[in-house]
Design a protein that fits this description.
four-stranded mixed beta sheet, 15 helices, alpha/beta, globular, Peroxisomal Thiolase, Chain A, domain 1, five-stranded mixed beta sheet
Length: 410
């Protein structure tokens, strides 16, 4: 594209035109985890603020989670799938190391025209992808870019490690970043950082070129997420605040002009510390970590979509979303909201189903960790205080999803 054509194609502004999220149906509670590791509901809540998280079904993958969120975002925007010019998927849990998960998402949403690629910046991935999308649209190269953050972390956790298995969950969030002929609004400032001193504070040791997968690496548990919690906490509390401040400063705002901060949902104590560092009340911090846990690159996208759909965001609001992650990476975007929040209702008719074509000559093993499957197969807990005398066996059978009459007769 010539400089003249690119200049002519540059929009008056770049805005979010659609948003969506998807959380798998299955809920994993703290009580469930207490059956696997030495912990309690009270211990987890007091240290993280997390009460439950979601677990993808065996047939679901990172691509299908992303595709459902993407379909919802496209519906909200009023666009058709083929109106999307570029697909960016931020994830650290791809379906495969190749092809890119974004290519699978393209097929799943029914798009035939877009370029597609993945972005890997761990929990900061959604913010990195958003900044990338804004640059493509602002430069006149594309009109509409789909940004997805999606993770299926429960398949990369050691469910005998209390330090990690209590923290993470599965989910996806998405936005459509679009060119607009109307001036104003959209991203006003951003900040992206990387500090490699923290490269091994949150990491997955094996499976890459340094340590390819082998029977030995599997036996040593080197395909599970490892984390140095204290060092990560220190980095997060400091860097989230400074990165958000930098984005706000670039936007030409003051912190008291910010209407809502959407932070990475890692830990309630981290969020509270960031609010204190920014001099903002918790009422200006959106929180849903209690219901979804840490969903890594999906976190900010899910929180943003939920904030809009629950009435926390209004036209003209000044919003900051900020994240940190392995690397160490961090990113923040300061933007003015322009989309009508009620357009979120357009996603109500989107069926939460997506499929990805499987290879013809290969099939995967059972993707569910065995320790986790044992808990999920047991079914949801039965509220025994609601059971009338003589109904205990029937209630237990319902909890296991079995036919109570057959169980009793056996």
């Amino acid at each position: 594209m010539s400089d003249a054509r690119r200049e002519a194609a540059r929009p008056a502004s770049v805005r979010i035109s659609g948003w969506g999220m998807y959380a798998p149906e299955r809920v994993l509670t703290n009580a469930d985890l207490a059956k696997l590791v030495d912990t309690t509901d009270e211990w987890i809540i007091s240290r993280t603020g997390i009460r439950e998280r979601r677990v993808a079904a065996p047939h679901e993958t990172t691509a299908t989670l992303a595709a459902v969120a993407a379909k919802r975002a496209i519906a909200v925007s009023g666009l058709a799938p083929d109106d999307i010019d570029l697909i960016l998927v931020a994830t650290l849990t791809p379906d495969y190391w190749m092809p890119a998960t974004a290519a699978l998402v393209k097929e799943a949403i029914g798009n035939h025209t877009a370029a597609a690629m993945d972005v890997m910046a761990a929990c900061s991935g959604f913010v990195y992808a958003y900044a990338t999308a804004d640059a493509f649209v602002r430069g006149g190269m594309y009109r509409n870019v789909l940004v997805c953050g999606a993770e299926l972390l429960t398949r990369f956790l050691d469910f005998s490690d209390r330090n990690t298995c209590i923290l993470f969950g599965d989910g996806a969030g998405a936005v459509i970043v679009s060119a607009s002929d109307q001036p104003g609004g959209g991203m006003q400032g951003f900040e992206l950082t990387t500090d490699p001193d923290g490269a091994y504070m949150i990491w997955l040791p094996s499976g890459g070129s340094r340590s390819p997968a082998s029977g030995e690496t599997v036996g040593r548990g080197e395909h599970f997420v490892r984390m140095e919690g204290r060092e990560t906490y220190r980095f997060a509390t400091k860097t989230l605040a400074t990165t958000a401040q930098a984005a706000v400063k670039r936007a030409g705002w003051t912190l008291d002009e910010v209407d809502l901060v959407i932070p990475h949902q890692a830990n309630i104590r981290i969020i509270e510390s960031v609010a204190k560092g920014l001099g903002l009340p918790m009422s200006k911090m959106f929180v849903n970590v209690d219901r979804y846990g840490n969903t890594s690159a999906a976190s900010v996208g899910m929180a943003l979509a939920e904030a809009v759909d629950t009435g926390r965001v209004h036209v003209g609001d000044r919003i900051v979303f900020v994240a940190f992650g392995a690397g160490f990476t961090s990113g923040a975007v300061a933007l003015e909201w322009t989309a009508e929040p009620l357009h979120g209702r357009r996603a109500r008719d989107v069926v939460p189903v997506a499929s990805v074509r499987a290879p013809l000559d290969w099939d995967s093993v059972d993707p569910m960790p065995q320790r986790l499957r044992a808990i999920l197969d047991a079914g949801p807990p039965v509220p025994l205080d609601d059971v009338a005398p003589g109904e205990l066996d029937e209630a237990r059978a319902r909890g296991r999803g079995t036919d109570s009459s057959k169980e009793v007769s056996a």
